[in-house]
Amino acid sequence: MGAYILRRLLLIIPTLLGIMIVNFTLTQFVPGGPIEQVIAQLEGGGDVFEGISGGSGDAAGAAETDAYTGSRGLPPEFIAELEREFGFDKPPLERFLNMMWNYIRFDFGDSYFRSIGVLELVLEKMPVSITLGLWSTLIAYLVSIPLGIRKAVNDGSRFDTWTSALIIVAYAIPGFLFAILLLVLFAGGSYFQIFPLRGLTGDNFEDLSLLGKIGDYFWHITLPVLASTISAFATLTLLTKNSFLDEIKKQYVVTARAKGLKDSSVLYGHVFRNAMLIVIAGFPSVFIGVFFGGSLIIETIFSLDGLGRLGFEAAVARDYPVIFGTLFFFGLIGLVVGILSDLMYVLVDPRIDFETREG
């Protein structure tokens, strides 16, 4: 197992390097870089994309005489200073190599437009994403696993049919639509004022007791967590049900029942470990997917300032240090979590040997 883990760790290097090369190369062909953003704000206070999409003959003529759209009237010295400040006075290859050297040392630099380090910015937004990712994953597992087991035991029954219908309906409802419905019903819309409308904590959070802080935290996260969890039930419940059905039909279950073992003993003493292998071992990847995915729309609807909004705002503003820094950091974590998922398989079922399978 040690040799397998070492090989996987070594594969992280070329994989992460490939991710960074592809994304860095793509940004070289995307219009509206950070310098153009600054110029657009200085000249008109608008967005750089207005100038790019204008497509007039005058703009085309200006593009022939100036490297940056909308930079007429600004002295060349100012443009050159902007290039030096953002590092664009160097060739792309040199910029990429410098960036990767800094990232290897976990120096992610500072945001172009926020006057704060990228790592500090990510840590500042992380509580929101951890809240949505962790609680959504835990609730999905706590509900879906028992429900999936019961559906497998009662396969084809009325309970199985009705719960399947409800799960499919829930899966079909977009998360943002369900979030709006929750707001309208329970957050001061047209019906009830039970939960707060926005934020992760209340304005008086620091003045509350420990129990008060815990209660205030859960009071605020109830609606956004429900909205981000609604679609996760279907996949996990059906995965659990189908996994148990496959195991229940195997010969060792028939043999155990023939020996006179109770159904509960057969189900939880023999079937459970084998059936739950895929479900439990996938927990790290499921959590990291929800954590990184950070629903932008859910965060926007509930006024939560998390990683989803950070990524979107960085992409719109062409804040390259934030874009590439978070891409490297999260890409590295995602690759490591892939290894942890394999270790979870071995932990759940020690009979699995990845080295033997590779051989």
TrEMBL record:
It is a multi-pass membrane protein. Keywords: Cell inner membrane, Cell membrane, Membrane, Transmembrane, Transmembrane helix, Transport. It is found in: Cell inner membrane; Cell membrane. InterPro entries: MetI-like, MetI-like_sf. The chain crosses the membrane at residues 9-26, 128-149, 161-187, 217-240, 275-302, 322-348. GO terms for cellular component: plasma membrane. Its main location: membrane. SUPFAM superfamilies: MetI-like. Residues 126-345 form the ABC transmembrane type-1 domain. GO terms for biological process: microcin transport; transmembrane transport. NCBIfam families: PRK15133.1 (NF011712). PANTHER family: INNER MEMBRANE ABC TRANSPORTER, INNER MEMBRANE ABC TRANSPORTER PERMEASE PROTEIN YEJB. Belongs to the binding-protein-dependent transport system permease family. This is Microcin C transport system permease protein. It comes from Palleronia pelagia.
